[in-house]
Amino acid sequence: MSPDRIAFVTLLKKEIKRFWSVLGQTVTAPVITAMLYLLVFAQALKDRASAYEGISYTEFLLPGLVMMTVIQNAFANTSSSLTQSKVMGNLVFLQMAPIGPLEWFGAYVLAALVRVCLVAVAMLAVTTLFVPLPVEAPLALLAVFLLSGAGLAAVGMIAGIVAEKFDHIAAFTNFFIMPLSFLSGVFYSVHALPPLWYHASHFNPFFYMIDGFRYGFFGHADVPIWQSLAWCGGFFVVASAVCLWMLVTGYKIKR
Amino acid sequence: MTAALSIAGVRKSYGRLDALRGIDLSVAAGEFFGLLGPNGAGKSTLINIIAGLVRMNAGQIAVMGHDIVRDFRAARRSLGVVPQELVFDPFFNVRDMLRIQAGYYGCGRESWPWIDEMLERLDLADKAGTSMRALSGGMKRRVLIAQALVHRPPVVILDEPTAGVDVELRRTLWRFMTDLHRNGTTVVLTTHYLEEAQELCGRIAILDHGALQVVETTRELLARHPFRFLRLKLADGAQLPEALQPLIAGEVNGVVELKLETARHPIGSVFTALRDAGVAIEDVQTREPDLEDIFIDLTGERAEARP
Predict the structure, then answer these.
(1) Is the pTM for the entire model greater than 0.90?
(2) Residues of chain A with C-beta less than 8 angstroms from the C-beta of B147
(3) What is the membrane topology here (chain A) (predicted)?
């Protein structure tokens, strides 16, 4: 293996070990939270008519909950890692190492994808007995999952680079990630919304992530899959470009 | 021969503050080099630029001939930096931290025996499995040194490695640095302990207000100011003759220290003046100038503390 590849693999392993060492916080806790959402909403709204014919409300809800958890955890993984390194001062080890911006970006994003894969698989495994889901479009499912996870991991890196303390990350989560993920059609179909909110939802990238992910399971969704894929892909490209620009120029991390 | 460290026209400003005002410096391979200066002189800024933590406004730096911007990977693989702050990653134990650091520099399992050797030599072997967050300050300092050396760089920069450490650790670190240097590593040391620099460094640069005041061998530097010090304890109630008053460099507990220029003020002339004035002496001592005296002369400031 070339030295550059060893460096990349080391950084990737280190990032995986970082969240693995606190698995209770990074994987178990989000799975339990999502399960509680499922339990509460499925119980409270089980008699509600489903958005799609032949699909119960609980089945409709589960893919959205999985994707919402993926969105929040992909963001949390990279943003908390970078912010913690900045606050503790140990980011210098990475900054002084012969690791280029692309390897840095790739390792952080891949590690976040590993974490959200674990979270998603754990959620689906736990619920498979009482909410079995079909997989009608596996390629679309995988593409939306990877693009959404990677896009949010890139946004997490941007937030981690910009943040100077944990409060900044909390603000980013509370005022950007949480509202957009809750208003993205996890708990309802956007067709059930009044016209203003229906149209507003179409400017929320998280809506396309959840809708595209749902399409992967059921083969139909609120908007065509190509539209969801285009939004997810575009979101990933823009977030990655901004993040890479920050890493190349040393924005906020190199004085 | 390629210089271990080549610095040309390096400038750095923070707003209106000129932290570095055009630094030109070359450190030859195999040197033990001291970079001294008072707080705020620009030492850490210069080191951080070399390490890739700070962007310079102008100039060029090469480590073992590799430009730190254009050829940053080769430059960084040639360099190990011990940062001044006690930074650590709380998620890992000591051995894992060192293996991760080796991996960053492209070193695989072949570096593991060297890691174990360093753990032994820095008295860290029994802490190898201990979490970084559980280590004392001194232990963390040792780990930082091991981290900087994990990829066996030909050039090592130590930014105040002995600041705030106890005497035993300081001696361990001195021994370790001397061994490194003996084995061919170029060592660049910054320290506030001037005795340390005088003892270890073959050549010294003094930086003040962002500019190099002097770059000379330690021997040249010590010989640069041809003066010596004479300490006199006068008999009770005796006053120093008026002619000798301008030579007073300090007075502590009744002992007067005179700063004598070797050519202008031979020691005999002082005794003659004392005898002529009828002043009795209780005790006499002479002291050669040390690096601290030169440092004060050049920067007008006293080093922070003596070890």
Answers:
(1) no
(2) 93
(3) Multi-pass membrane protein
